[in-house]
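Incident review: delayed structure delivery

Summary: a single-chain prediction request sat in the queue longer than the usual turnaround. Root cause was a stuck worker, restarted by the on-call engineer. No data loss occurred. The affected request and its eventual output are reproduced below so the record is complete for anyone auditing the incident later.

Affected input:
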Amino acid sequence: MGRIRQLYGRIVLQLRGKYPVVGWSMTPDEAVSFIRGLRKTVLTFIGFSTDFEDQKEVLKIVQGVLAKHPPDSTLINIGATRGGVGSIYPLAKSMGFLTSGIISTEAFAFYNDLSEHVDHICFIKDRLWGGYQPGSKELSPTSRAMVDCSDIFIGIGGNDVARDELLAARDLGKPLEFFPAEMNHEWAIRSARQSGKPQPTTFWGAAHEVFGK
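Output delivered after worker restart:
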């Protein structure tokens, strides 16, 4: 059923024709080649895919970060969806930045969640959302594309995928800055309840356990 839903989502996106998709099933190398071909410094934001508890404070932090980078030579790269760190897209566009999004083909099933403020979307052929491959320290295709194409990383909260990408960036010696931020409490509690998991006792996320202390 999941693959059928993904196929349906891809068809819907293609029929809508309003999203600037570079490729529907790219390899990491293809995505990196395209992003690098734009000839800009790639500033990548990584964090929660769901809303933050203090959205206004996060956007204030982001505005301060963006103010340090020239829009004409900087590309703002995120994960193509509108929630969580994706809420940065409208702000970046309003400040004159070109934007890109790298995202797994798993997102086809969530076709209504894409941001309309992305200039270039690269769908990476991947059976995971990102992070390390199970049982290894090898990045999934989506995360490898994200890490390899980026020059500078800004982490704002984030769970497992964000943690793994930031760890990989750090191992490569890429500039990295992390800002602690909580995920939306109500969403986290509801999500745990719906999946039959215990109610969360912290909302800082897995990335905070490594980078936020």
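Verification: The first helix runs from residue 2 to 16.
Action items: add queue-age alerting; document worker restart procedure.
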